[in-house]
């Protein structure tokens, strides 16, 4: 969604491909610094843009000191056009910072989970919620281990389901895609 938003000049085409945001309160967008549309897997850094459609604010969380500032700002302006309302862009400089060059994706996942589960879903209706991440520590190593545990549990669940299935194949192999 973000790649399409960033690279397609015709915003009407983009809007037709996106979900209906009319009943959405918040949008989480991973932002990538890929500037070459011919290389879908390009780019080297990820950050998080959290858009509150209720408040008209886009919060940018960048674990590499604002490296994706311009990409997040462009995404905010384009999304504002699609939403048909102004969005105020806030680059949160108190975002926890990664200590190496490879944790940005993990940071995006962990920050998104924290903001959704610990902030937005815990708040009462009409309660003001701080979107600051000041003082929040991110355990990227623990986050990676947790993601691997989740993947492994899902893999095992798939195996269990296949072993109980009425598959016509004797070896209970995974289904093939047409």
UniProtKB/TrEMBL annotation:
<dbReference type="GO" id="GO:0008234">
    <property type="term" value="F:cysteine-type peptidase activity"/>
</dbReference>
<dbReference type="GO" id="GO:0019784">
    <property type="term" value="F:deNEDDylase activity"/>
</dbReference>
<dbReference type="GO" id="GO:0006508">
    <property type="term" value="P:proteolysis"/>
</dbReference>
<keyword id="KW-0378">Hydrolase</keyword>
<dbReference type="InterPro" id="IPR044613">
    <property type="entry name" value="Nep1/2-like"/>
</dbReference>
<dbReference type="Pfam" id="PF02902">
    <property type="entry name" value="Peptidase_C48"/>
</dbReference>
<feature type="region of interest" description="Disordered">
    <location>
        <begin position="155"/>
        <end position="178"/>
    </location>
</feature>
<feature type="compositionally biased region" description="Polar residues">
    <location>
        <begin position="165"/>
        <end position="178"/>
    </location>
</feature>
<dbReference type="GO" id="GO:0000338">
    <property type="term" value="P:protein deneddylation"/>
</dbReference>
<feature type="domain" description="Ubiquitin-like protease family profile">
    <location>
        <begin position="1"/>
        <end position="115"/>
    </location>
</feature>
<keyword id="KW-0788">Thiol protease</keyword>
<dbReference type="InterPro" id="IPR038765">
    <property type="entry name" value="Papain-like_cys_pep_sf"/>
</dbReference>
<comment type="similarity">
    <text>Belongs to the peptidase C48 family.</text>
</comment>
<protein>
    <recommendedName>
        <fullName>Ubiquitin-like protease family profile domain-containing protein</fullName>
    </recommendedName>
</protein>
<dbReference type="InterPro" id="IPR003653">
    <property type="entry name" value="Peptidase_C48_C"/>
</dbReference>
<keyword id="KW-0645">Protease</keyword>
């Amino acid at each position: 969604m973000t790649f399409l938003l960033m690279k397609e000049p015709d915003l009407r085409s983009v809007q037709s491909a996106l979900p209906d945001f009319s009943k959405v309160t918040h949008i989480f967008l991973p932002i990538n610094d890929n500037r070459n549309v011919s290389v879908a897997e390009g780019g080297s850094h990820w950050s998080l843009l959290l858009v509150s459609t209720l408040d008209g604010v886009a919060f940018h969380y960048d674990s590499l000191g604002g490296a994706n500032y311009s990409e997040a700002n462009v995404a905010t302006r384009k999304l504002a056009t699609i939403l048909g309302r102004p969005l105020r862009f806030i680059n949160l400089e108190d975002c926890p910072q990664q200590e190496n060059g490879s944790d940005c994706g993990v940071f995006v996942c962990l920050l998104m989970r924290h903001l959704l589960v610990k902030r937005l879903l815990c708040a009462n209706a009409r309660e003001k919620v701080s979107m600051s991440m000041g003082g929040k520590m991110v355990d990227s190593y623990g986050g990676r281990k947790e993601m691997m545990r989740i993947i492994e549990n899902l893999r095992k669940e798939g195996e269990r389901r296949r072993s109980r299935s009425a598959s016509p194949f004797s070896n209970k192999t995974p289904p093939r895609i047409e």
